[in-house]
């Protein structure tokens, strides 16, 4: 490569714009000064929509427990204040309202006189897209609203898991996720008003489950997740993480922002269990100390941000 190309700032900007990872730059006040095409693809916000805005107002990062990462807990702010690179997994809020797990790496930007000018952040999705990792696309077997496997396919997967468990005697984890408050919202705003809630919930679940986990539809407002792990602790932990992330998801309806309300029940299937009884027990096992653990909850309904 010639020295002229190396000295060409337009060329370097073009190269950074087209890198297959998200990159953004913020100043000392955490205002976004650069936002590449990779960031647009992962988070959904276009550059002209976010440049000049405060970072917290755009990505609204949280951790696995649903705690907002702002001020002193913000990795970018830590880099600016301490001049130390940070590397961690956080959960950004996509423009569509669902949560996306991303691995971020921050670096301080030094100006003349060794002054901190801001920070650069490189990020990429933490989990491989499920369609890319699970073989050929399942055309005709996906729910039209959410894009995840239909109830019929989900039942077939469950039956296969139950049959395999009887042979191997190895159990599996099962989560049942219910999106709450949709009947009331539909009655007030019309049939199509609930679609963004279902889509946001499905995308949050899909983007934060590993490739070996199965996610499928079960009812109009329900999803099932099959986990290969039969450890009650791991299954309960996964249920809690997913509920926390769902609770931090939100949708827009005619300019208003609404939180997603959800209930996540979890259990471990063992040899001898009956599928219908297993699913039925998940509905009522809400008390602590039972054999079939449950993580439930719902946010206060209404607008989170105008």
Topology of this protein?
Layout: H1 3-6, H2 9-17, E1 22-27, E2 32-35, H3 37-43, H4 47-50, H5 55-59, H6 75-82, E3 87-93, E4 99-110, E5 116-125, H7 130-133, H8 151-168, E6 172-179, H9 182-189, H10 195-207, E7 214-219, E8 222-227, H11 232-247, E9 250-253, E10 256-259, E11 262-269, H12 275-284, E12 294-295
Antiparallel strand pairs: 1-2, 1-5, 3-4, 4-5, 6-8, 6-11, 7-8, 9-10, 11-12
Strand content: 25-35%
- The ordered string of helix (H) and strand (E) elements is HHEEHHHHEEEHHEHHEEHEEEHE
Structure annotation, total helices = 12
- Assign a percent range to the helix content: 25-40%
Give the number of DSSP strands. 12
Explain how this protein is built:
The chain has 306 residues and is an alpha+beta fold. The chain has two domains: 12-125, 2-Layer Sandwich (Beta-Lactamase); 130-295, 2-Layer Sandwich (Alpha-Beta Plaits). 35% of the residues lie in helices and 25% in strands. Strands 2-1-5-4-3 form a five-stranded antiparallel β-sheet. It has a five-stranded antiparallel β-sheet with strand order 7-8-6-11-12, with helices on both faces. Strands 9-10 form a two-stranded antiparallel sheet. A hairpin with a 4-residue loop joins strand 1 and strand 2. Residues 129-137 and 283-306 have low confidence and may be disordered.
């Amino acid at each position: 490569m010639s020295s002229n190309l190396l000295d060409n700032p337009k060329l370097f900007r073009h190269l950074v714009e087209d890198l297959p990872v998200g990159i953004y730059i913020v100043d000392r006040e955490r205002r976004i000064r650069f936002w590449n095409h990779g960031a647009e693809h992962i988070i959904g916000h276009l550059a002209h929509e976010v440049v000049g805005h405060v970072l917290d107002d755009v990505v609204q990062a949280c951790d696995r427990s649903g705690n907002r990462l702002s001020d002193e807990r913000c990795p970018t702010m830590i880099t600016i204040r301490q001049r130390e690179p940070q590397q961690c997994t956080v959960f950004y809020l996509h423009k569509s309202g669902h949560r996306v797990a991303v691995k971020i790496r921050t670096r301080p930007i030094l100006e003349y006189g060794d002054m901190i000018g801001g920070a650069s952040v490189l990020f990429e999705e933490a989990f491989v897209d499920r369609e890319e990792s699970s073989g050929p696309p399942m055309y005709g077997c996906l729910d039209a609203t959410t894009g995840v496997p239909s109830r019929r396919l989900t039942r077939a997967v469950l039956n296969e898991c139950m049959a395999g468990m009887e042979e191997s005697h190895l159990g599996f984890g099962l989560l049942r996720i219910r999106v709450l408050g949709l009947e009331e919202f539909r009655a007030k705003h019309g049939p199509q008003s609930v679609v963004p809630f279902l889509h946001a919930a499905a995308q949050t679940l899909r983007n934060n489950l590993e490739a070996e986990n199965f996610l499928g539809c079960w009812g109009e407002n329900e999803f099932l997740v099959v986990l290969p792990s039969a450890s009650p602790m791991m299954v309960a932990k996964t249920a809690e993480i997913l509920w926390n992330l769902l609770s931090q998801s939100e949708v827009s309806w005619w300019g208003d922002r609404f939180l997603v309300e959800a209930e996540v029940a979890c259990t471990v299937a063992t040899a001898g269990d009956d599928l219908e009884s297993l699913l039925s027990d998940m509905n009522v096992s809400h008390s602590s100390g039972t054999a079939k653990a449950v993580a439930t909850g719902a946010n206060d309904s209404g607008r989170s941000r105008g």
